[in-house]
Write a structure and sequence with these properties.
Elements: E1 5-10, H1 30-37, E2 40-46, H2 52-61, H3 65-68, H4 84-90, E3 94-97, H5 109-112, H6 161-174, E4 181-186, H7 223-230, H8 238-269, E5 275-280, H9 302-305, E6 306-312, E7 320-327, H10 330-338, H11 353-356, E8 367-371, H12 385-388, H13 399-407, E9 415-419, E10 423-427, E11 434-437, H14 455-472
Parallel strand pairs: 1-4, 1-5, 2-7, 3-4
Antiparallel strand pairs: 2-6, 5-6, 8-9, 9-10, 10-11
Helix pairs in contact: 6-8
């Protein structure tokens, strides 16, 4: 039997609750909903970090960020480290890449990727297509300047860099590749700025958007109000955030449209019968919830940690929903098992192949995520001009974020999350810790950390968190060194 092919469709900053099959009543995601109906949807998939690079390093290795220090945007996987794409390439797959990086150090590409210019194959992308977005469309003293809400993008969907990469993948499928292949599509949408080409930018009526989580809730970590102050979001009303959220949903519709083109090409070329499709994101986005935009390195709300994970595998279950918690990095172990490739490194991911075949998940499983920085980390604070230079310019859209992290480092302190089906604990040694009763308070509006009636639950979660750190604090290599002296 020939090896199974793989497509890894990886939108950036797509949260689960903003998709139709995950319960959103106004989302326009027919193709993603179809993929879920034809495969397995994991309802409670949570990332291991809520920033791009750390999350991607985790889901490609099965490692938590603390294992090898992949905690910032500037520490990517290096040649001595394992990753899923490297395993596939070494096993004889041609690995094609179309999209952004935030995963591999430059010197790691040769061992992991056959061709990282998949978009160059596109014949239909508009001339000069790319992912650039220019600057904010407002005056710098306008409260909306740092909001990430921009005007519609010029041109149609064919002018987007994401279209070019997906269309390149379609051209590859049509070329009838003779070797087993893995296509990795790390796309840019729906990452902010919030804007899209028409008709997507105005596709969703802001009045139809369900109520957002309210701003300025009591007993939240300090970064909630500090972000609102430094970005001047506290001067904007609910109507503004509903408009912003509607545009975010329109961006998701763009991603869904591109997925539809890819699924159509799989049918057209016959590869739907021999290719597994995995769709997931690296993390979510506040998109107006709590009066906030984008995300924060130590923000661990469900709208940031809970992402879609949908997989359609030929011959396995259709229309199956796994309601039990899973961790995003489980995809590494899952794809390796489907490809019949044994892992040669210590990792903490669990294969989800039984669930893809229709089995339930583990009701007692807890999922974990990490975030934030300590003052000793050179990538995060002053002293690294190459990584922070753009944040020193007040006209830069990320200036408030970079400046806040430098001026108030405790607001971005390290933190760790443990989440079960019923409760979530976020431990912050230098800031406000959080505990939520997810049965009574699924939108995480009431922080009950330290309240006497939750003392037993809090203690149990903190003990479990400590045990998890003991078990995952390092990774022992498979190979051994001789104990004798050199000859």
């Amino acid at each position: 039997m020939p090896p199974m092919n793989f497509i890894i469709f990886n939108p950036d900053e797509l949260r689960a609750e903003s998709i139709g099959c995950y319960g959103n009543p106004v989302a326009r995601t027919p193709h993603l909903d179809r993929l879920a109906a034809e495969g397995t949807r994991f309802d409670q998939c949570h990332v291991q970090h809520t920033v791009c690079t750390p999350s991607r390093c985790s889901f490609m290795t099965g490692w938590y960020p603390h294992v090898r220090g992949h905690r910032t945007l500037w520490h990517m996987l290096r040649p001595d480290e394992p990753n899923l794409l490297k395993y596939l390439k070494q096993a004889g797959y041609d690995v094609y890449w179309g999209g952004k990086n935030d995963l591999l150090a430059p010197e790691s590409f040769p061992a992991s990727v056959t061709d990282y210019r998949l978009g160059a194959r596109s014949r239909r992308a508009a001339q000069g297509a790319g992912s650039g977005h220019g600057g904010p469309p407002y005056a710098q003293d306008d409260p909306r300047y740092y909001s990430f809400l921009y005007q519609p993008l010029p041109g149609g969907i064919e002018a987007l860099g994401d279209f070019r990469h997906v269309d390149g993948a379609i051209e590859l499928l049509r070329s009838r590749p003779r070797r087993p292949f893995a296509i990795y599509l790390p796309l840019s949408f729906p990452h902010c700025p919030y804007h899209a080409p028409e008709p997507f930018h105005h596709l969703i009526d802001p009045a139809s958007v369900p109520p957002l989580r309210p701003a300025d809730l009591p007993n939240k970590p300090d970064f909630y109000h500090l972000i609102r102050q430094t970005r001047r979001l506290d001067r904007l009303d609910d109507g503004f955030f509903r408009t912003l959220h509607a545009v975010y949903l329109g961006m998701i519709a763009v991603t869904d449209t591109l997925l539809g083109l890819l699924l159509e090409a799989l049918e057209e070329t016959g590869h739907a019968a021999d290719t597994a499709v995995f769709l997931f994101s690296d993390h979510g986005d506040w998109a107006g919830d709590y009066g906030l935009v984008e995300k924060w390195p130590s923000g661990l709300d469900d709208c940031l940690t809970r992402v879609p994970l949908v997989a359609r595998v030929p011959g396995l279950a259709r229309g199956h929903v796994v309601s039990e918690p899973v961790e995003l990095f489980d995809i590494m172990a899952t794809i390796l098992e489907l490809a019949e490739i044994p892992a040669q490194h210590t990792h903490f991911a669990r294969s989800l192949v039984p669930q893809l075949g229709g089995a339930p998940g583990d009701r007692e499983r807890a999922v974990f995520a990490e975030g934030g920085y300590d003052p000793h980390e050179p990538h995060a604070f002053e002293g690294r001009p190459e990584s922070l230079a753009g944040f020193r310019d007040p006209s830069h859209i990320y200036y408030p974020k970079g400046r806040l992290q430098q001026d108030r480092p405790e607001s971005v302190c390290r933190c760790t999350m443990i989440r079960t089906r019923t409760h979530k604990l976020v431990r912050r040694p230098l800031g406000v810790s959080e505990l939520y009763d997810l049965v009574a308070d699924p939108r995480e509006l009431r922080n009950v950390y330290g309240q006497p009636e939750y003392a037993t639950v809090q203690h149990a979660l903190e003990q479990r968190l400590l045990d998890w750190y003991v078990h995952t604090s390092d990774v022992v290599p498979f190979d051994e060194n001789p104990r004798g002296l050199p000859a």
